[in-house]
Amino acid sequence: MGQEQVGEIRHDRSGISFRPGLEGVPVTQSAICDIDGMQGRLAYRGYPIAELSAHSSFLETTYLLIWGDLPSPQQLRDFEAEVQMHRRVSFRVRDMMKCFPASGHPMDALQSSAASLGLFYSRRAIDDPKYVYNAVVRLIAKIPTMVAAFKLIRKGQDPIQPRDDLAYSANFLYMLTEREPDPLAARVLDRCLILHAEHSLNASTFSARVTASTLTDPYAVVASAVGTLAGPLHGGANEDVLAMLEEIGSPEHAGDYLDEAIASKRKVMGFGHREYRVKDPRAVILQGLAEELFARFGTDEMYDVAKALEAAAATRLGPKGIYPNVDFYSGLVYRKLGIPRDLFTPVFAISRVAGWLAHWREQLGANRIFRPSQIYTGAQNRTWIPSDERVSSTGA
Ligand SMILES: CC(=O)SCCNC(=O)CCNC(=O)[C@H](O)C(C)(C)COP(=O)(O)OP(=O)(O)OC[C@H]1O[C@@H](n2cnc3c(N)ncnc32)[C@H](O)[C@@H]1OP(=O)(O)O
Ligand SMILES: O=C([O-])CC(=O)C(=O)O
């Protein structure tokens, strides 16, 4: 049977239909994260996201995602202590980062430095539970240190060493801002990390699972996922949202901006989602966190623009099921925490490592290499001819 075309749906030789972007195609079974996109519900391992973000910590949620159950008090203490012990990165990694161009994007720096960890720890002993545990600990511990290090290295400064007396998120803010954070700021960041930790088969997690399915090491799995998260249609949108709000400039321009974007078929950043037909439940919580920070530390004038844009979009994009996603309010939160704009996506990555590693473990538990098919649309049966006898398609 040859390939056939029926309207937009096309079939490969086995008759399986082609769905652009794999929309609605299940490519794995997973017990990690459940999304109800019509109701706006999200749960990790059966726990609603609102409960986790209100009561859990990022490290506890990481443990839950990766090992399936909430840790006992002793298990959590051990995990926190191990992560704290492995926060430092080798001087070799720091020296390598000093050779990165200062103008490079921090996501590219992170992808390279995450991959470089494989040079130190890549035994590929992925059947050994101790190796798996250590790899999880190292990645969760070192990624924030590497993100903070690049921020200072690109300014020609030496990175700040982690402080053992500070908890995970407080220590990250300390390494980044060079001062001990207010406890509210540290807790808000920790809650943001919980909210971003996992989201089923988004593009970067799919990328992580594909890479994992070759049985390569976890550092390569994370590096490939970081590269995927960086794109503006995925995690990179959080950076673009603030640029968009600044371009709009004031609340009364939000409607015109939207009309123009829709007329010219330009995507409105921070809106839309493959899974949700309502406002992303994480955006609801992030908006609340932004308001908590504004009440304490002063408002951000772009917040009024964001609210006006959301209100204007409700009538223009809402009927198509397009609402704010997780990237819409996160930048306003991060900015209030003193995080530079081009570190918004690396902060997302610090958190999403938990989800990527949970999927890495799950993939290895029932592995089959990902190798989908394609529908070939190219030329057939051509004959090679010497270059001096060729005529180019432009006639040159
Ligand atoms: C952490 C995250 O990754 S969250 C997502 C972050 N990305 C963004 O915020 C970028 C803006 N949003 C988008 O590009 C998309 O909504 C995505 C990438 C998130 C989802 O994409 P898909 O599920 O493939 O939807 P797709 O791009 O096919 O859009 C479907 C329709 O909705 C429209 N649409 C989707 N998102 C938007 C948007 N943000 N602004 C305007 N229109 C939109 C499309 O133009 C399309 O309309 P059409 O049917 O008339 O052609
Ligand atoms: O699920 C998606 O496609 C994108 C997303 O919201 C995420 O990765 O958090």
Task: Briefly characterize the structure.
Pfam families: Citrate_synt. By secondary structure, the chain is mainly alpha-helical. The protein is built from 16 helices and six strands.
Task: Set out the fold topology.
Blueprint: E1 4-6, E2 9-11, E3 17-18, E4 33-36, E5 41-44, E6 47-48, H1 49-55, H2 58-67, H3 73-85, H4 91-98, H5 106-121, H6 129-153, H7 168-177, H8 183-196, H9 203-212, H10 218-229, H11 237-248, H12 254-263, H13 281-297, H14 301-316, H15 327-336, H16 344-365
Antiparallel strand pairs: 1-2, 2-3, 4-5, 5-6
Bound molecules: acetyl coenzyme *A and oxaloacetate ion.
Helix content: 40-55%
**Name of the CATH class of the domain at 57-194 and 203-227 and 351-365:** Mainly Alpha
CATH architecture of the domain at 57-194 and 203-227 and 351-365, by name, is: Orthogonal Bundle
Strand/helix succession: EEEEEEHHHHHHHHHHHHHHHH
By CATH, the superfamily of the domain at 57-194 and 203-227 and 351-365 comes out as Citrate Synthase, domain 1
* Stretches with pLDDT under 50, minimum 5 residues: 1-8
What is the number of helical segments per DSSP (H or I, 4+ residues)?
16
Class from secondary-structure proportions: mainly alpha
Q: What is the topology, as strand order, of the major beta sheet?
A: 1-2-3
